[in-house]
Amino acid sequence: MSSFKISIDDEQVLAALRSLRGRSENLAPLMQKLGEQLIESTQNRFSTATAPDGSPLAPNSEVTISRYLGLTRGNFKKDGSRSKKGEARAASKKPLTGETGELRRQIHYRVVGNSLEVGSTMEYAAVQQFGRKKGESGSDRRGRPLPWGDIPARPFIGLSADDKSGIEQSISDYLHL
User: Fold this and answer.
1) CA-based radius of gyration for the chain
2) Where residue 1 falls among pLDDT bands split at 50, 70, 90?
């Protein structure tokens, strides 16, 4: 078997290789860009009520909607049925939006070394992401189960097909490939 060696003695090529090595050793700027992209994508899923895989999120329960409607006036008629206004509000109530919309605002990222973490600071974010069975959190001081009923998983953090394409493009742009 014969072998041979090729030496590159071109300053432009060598400079490009040095630049590539330098960029690949410090990925923090890339991770920050990806973090911003993923926060935006995650927050957009609240508006579309879809999971990262594109499937619709589990709808709110009737109890959740009734509680939401009870926070403002004009949603119920005197006989207890919903008014037109109440029906419209109920129809527009999307999963995960809550009473304050705080979960959507509390999506953050953190760059740790050359890695990226995306999550929420809200205590109930994990319950929304993974769901929780009735009584799984114990009981309240009166012995009632917590939560009082099953909470279906409503995954909002994750990578969609568009996220993956965007990540690939950002990596390519960052490395100037």
Assistant:
1) 25
2) low
